[in-house]
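Question (not urgent): is this output format expected?
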Amino acid sequence: MNRVITISRQYCSGGGAIAKLLSEKLSLPCYDSVLLEKIAEKSGFDHEYIREEGEYSRGILSMIFSHGGGELSNQEKLWIIQHNIICKLAAKEDCIIVGRCADYILREKADCLNAFIHADMEFRKEKLQARSPEVKKEKFTQFLKKKDKARAAYYSYFTGMTWGDARHYHVTLDAGKWGEEKCAEIIAALYGKG
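Got this back:
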């Protein structure tokens, strides 16, 4: 069974950067944007559509009522494709997988080290400003809360668990407090002891 690090994260908490640092430290492939490309290729959906729909919930009711006649919604189709791709990647090699409920998907299919990255609002606002300059400063808090709420709803819908609940992860780290480099060092050390 391959060893996989899964990184779940609040929006703009530094989880993606920590995953890249881990990839360099441990010489492991990191599947974040590459995973999006694989899902886009397999599903035929646009890369941006997958970025928004593949990890965020429009709301449980809209997903339930967005399709009729027993057909799967686009989000459910993406879930199946993403589930299969994540399982294949984990079966192929030791790796790092960012987001997309990988911690849940691989719970019985790989030897996982599951990490959750969070940060205070000020740290995340700085990241957001650098990442998305089109978002108005006075809307930062609202924007970040909306992204987190959507991730939480998506995670809950497909896993039946609570996103960010420390009981579901081996380690939760505050990237605002510790910094991305230190968080990567901590996860790498835990992985090395596995």
